[in-house]
Amino acid sequence: MLELNGVRAGYGAINVLWDVSLKAGAGQLTTIIGPNGAGKTTLLRAIMGLLPLGAGSIAVDGQRLDGRPTWKMADVGIAMVPEGRMVFRDMSVEENLIMGAYHPSHRAHMPERLEAAYAMFPRLRERRRQLAGSLSGGEAQMLAMARGLMSNPRLLIVDEPSLGLSPLLVNELFEVLARLKGEGRTIVLVEQNTARAVGVADHVYLMQGGKVVLSQPAAEVSLEQLHELYFAR
Ligand SMILES: Nc1ncnc2c1ncn2[C@@H]1O[C@H](COP(=O)(O)OP(=O)(O)O)[C@@H](O)[C@H]1O
Ligand SMILES: [Mg+2]
User: What is the C-alpha to C-alpha distance for residues 1 and 39, in angstroms, rounded to an integer?
Assistant: First the structure.
């Protein structure tokens, strides 16, 4: 479904991604793991059209994405849940959700999308009038995920959702990811929690120094080998 070929991108004169190629199959959960600074977030920014490509191409179902402005990504069924949650703290939970479906083509579906969000995240329903800034870290992450789902994306991209969450909330988060996958959604998950990410994934990519250093079906991944590679220089 999503296909990157030989992607180079970075920040001005500094190149970060070196010929990154990867695929995320429809209905699958593809995880991209790797240490801090490996270029995972940069890769997601490149997919979302937030960074120009120095080389290579990005396509969804054969349709080129590069060059398409970020605000048009919802039209092709792509949504991203950014690193650090990024909820609007001074808005209520429900207002945050509404922001996830601001596009005119989604507005007509607002009531049913809100209902679906509250069905998936019951705690958000209880807190719908509460300011997002007063949510716990786990609740804010769930809100960020729910907001990402408001445009009913075919492809949901999630950047380090488990960061800073308690073990209990990490469990809850991975249950939600498994449920979304069960719904047939295509998911690209960036994680540093390698064991959990591999556990829920269909395919695993390991990035290091801006390159893909391993690509393997999750069922074939040896965590031991993965950790050796992970910490190798
Ligand atoms: N806005 C930026 N300007 C310049 N360099 C950046 C910027 N954001 C990230 N980088 C650099 O790009 C590299 C990859 O960062 P990032 O993609 O955030 O890694 P990861 O998400 O894997 O931790 C790092 O060396 C980082 O310092
Ligand atoms: Mg990152």
Answer: 22
Query: Ligand 1: which of 14, 15, 16 to mutate, most ligand atoms within 8 Å of CB?
Result: 16
Distance 120 CA to ligand 1 centre (A): 33
What Cα–Cα distance (Å) separates residue 5 from each residue in 21, 47, 71, 185? 4, 11, 23, 23
In this prediction, residue 79 carries a pLDDT of 93
What pLDDT sits at residue 121?
93
List the residue whose alpha carbon is closest to atom 16 of ligand 1: 39
Confirm or reject: Cβ of 11 under 6 Å from ligand 1: yes
Instruction: Give the three-state DSSP class for 83.
Output: coil
What pLDDT does 214 receive? 95
Domain positions in the chain are 27-49+72-231
Q: Which fold has domain 27-49+72-231?
A: Rossmann fold (3.40.50)
E strands within the chain?
2-11, 14-24, 29-33, 55-60, 63-64, 78-81, 155-159, 186-191, 203-208, 211-217
